[in-house]
Write a structure and sequence with these properties.
Layout: H1 5-11, H2 28-46, E1 56-61, E2 72-78, H3 81-84, H4 91-103, H5 112-118, E3 123-128, H6 132-141, E4 145-150, H7 152-157, H8 167-173, E5 182-184, H9 189-192, E6 210-212, E7 232-234, H10 239-279
Parallel strand pairs: 3-4, 4-5
Antiparallel strand pairs: 1-2, 1-3, 6-7
The structure holds zinc ion.
The site of zinc ion has 6 residues, from helix 6.
Length: 280
């Protein structure tokens, strides 16, 4: 039986990883490389450069440098709660599910217990700090590293609904588990923060490759409820100029409508007030 190096690297992972030193020995270039791969997973798995739920993930084996100095990609995942109607399919959980399928199939063919053990040698990258559900799953899996970009605080500031328990708080409560997971926060947050800055702010800039939709334009984006809200949709940046003109026209039209309303109200007031004046 031919065993490829990735298989050997995974199979040699101990069942329980003991206390690690706190020094992160993975080069910054490799951390950045895999964080960008997590971002790319979004377009690859959702088909859009600006999915509403911009939570992408990559799971990596840094021990295997056979094909790349940065390590070996095992699987990717992206938030797919809406596509699947499954509220647990956040980016991290989707990636863990994908990895479980991959590790128990060709070429790895690990049995369940071996696949569970393999997670302890892998690193999970995610475009944003995990919610309590995902942070807990990361600790149960016993990942070697957990690397995130955009912070929970930033998500909250951008009006994302969140359960306000940080990964640090979850990790602290998980200290009795037999594994340790190194947390590496804020990797390339300056590149991922814009992915979360437009969903709840109509004036937020769309990510590259996207433009604001027009009111009434049909979109597949859940942010455009009833198509009465502008959301980010795939499109040319050039369209933004045309849209800016439309927005200006709409603003003028809105202001004119407001003035008309004001005049009508004053007129009605005058009509009501006039008889009272006659009686005086
Ligand atoms: Zn989550």
């Amino acid at each position: 039986m031919h065993l490829n190096p990735t298989y050997l690297a995974l199979f040699s992972i101990p069942w329980f990883v003991h206390a690690q030193d706190d020094v992160d020995t993975v080069p910054v270039e490799s951390r950045n490389h895999w964080m960008r791969r997590s971002v790319d997973a979004l377009a690859e798995l959702t088909g859009s450069p600006c999915p509403f739920e911009a939570f992408g993930s990559a799971i990596v084996n840094h021990s295997d440098t056979t094909n790349s100095e940065h390590g070996e990609l095992i699987c990717i995942g992206a938030n797919s709660i809406i596509q699947n109607g499954n509220p647990t399919l956040h980016g991290e959980i989707a990636a863990i599910n994908n990895c479980s399928r991959i590790l128990t199939s060709e070429p790895y063919n690990l049995v369940g217990r071996e696949a569970l053990g393999a997670f302890q040698g892998l690193s999970l990258y995610t475009t944003a700090e995990a919610c309590p559900m995902c942070a807990t799953a990361i600790r149960w899996a016993g990942f070697k590293d957990y690397v995130y970009a955009t912070s929970l605080d930033t998500l909250v500031k951008q009006s994302w609904p969140q359960i306000s328990l940080s990964s640090s708080q979850i990790f602290e409560k998980a200290s009795s588990l037999p594994t340790k997971t190194r947390m590496v926060p804020h990797v390339l947050a300056d590149e991922t923060d814009p992915l979360f800055a437009w969903q709840f702010n109509e004036n937020g800039k769309c990510p590259p490759g996207c433009r604001r939709s027009r009111i009434g334009e049909k979109t597949n984006n859940p942010a455009a409820v009833g198509d009465t809200k502008r959301t980010c949709v795939p499109g040319d940046k050039g369209d933004e100029d045309g849209l800016a003109g439309e927005l200006a026209d709409e603003a003028v039209a809105g202001a004119a409508k407001g003035l008309r309303g004001l005049w009508t109200a004053l007129f009605n007031l005058f009509k009501v007030a006039a008889p009272v004046g006659d009686e005086l």
